[in-house]
Q: What sequence folds into this?
């Protein structure tokens, strides 16, 4: 019996996965929040797996990518303390400095303590109020998904047509492809 392979459907889903990743990477770079070290950008990828009776398309990214995409709500009970070291590293990487009441940069008095103070203030604000996501992945997926159904219908129909033609050939005794 002819085996049913999803060659055209597989190509269409693979193209969909690539398009979503490319669009998400573009949105990540252009939107205000989320692009710092490039680690999340580099981690965006897709994985298409084909089994005997199914096709699976999965998207991968760094764990914190979901928080960048969807945002974060306020913390219950002050948080676990895991956020502060990450924010402190970000403050140091960005070179954030204290300002005076007129908005001018102040001279460093005790650089480490002042950086810790800035990180504390940012962490406290995140714990109290959370932040809105930038929807870089959600928007990319939605934009590309709108076009997917008609492409899948067409390619799946071609795959089924080819499968039926192979099956009919086998029934008639013609084992050629």
A:
């Amino acid at each position: 019996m002819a085996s049913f392979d999803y060659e055209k459907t597989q190509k269409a889903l693979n193209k969909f996965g690539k398009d979503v990743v490319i669009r998400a990477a573009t949105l990540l770079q252009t939107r205000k929040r989320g692009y710092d070290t490039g680690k999340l950008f580099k981690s965006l990828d897709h994985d298409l797996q084909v089994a005997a009776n199914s096709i699976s398309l999965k998207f991968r990214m760094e764990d914190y990518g979901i928080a960048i995409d969807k945002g974060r709500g306020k913390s219950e009970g002050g948080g676990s303390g895991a956020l502060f070291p990450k924010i402190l590293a970000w403050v140091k990487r960005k070179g954030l400095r204290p300002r005076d009441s007129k908005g001018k940069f102040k001279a460093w008095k005790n650089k480490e303590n002042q950086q810790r103070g800035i990180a504390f203030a940012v962490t406290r604000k995140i714990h109290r109020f959370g932040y809105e996501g930038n929807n870089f992945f959600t928007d990319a997926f939605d934009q590309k998904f709108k076009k997917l159904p008609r492409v899948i219908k067409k390619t799946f129909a071609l795959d089924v047509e080819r499968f039926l033609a192979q099956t009919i050939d086998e029934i008639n005794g013609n084992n050629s492809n």
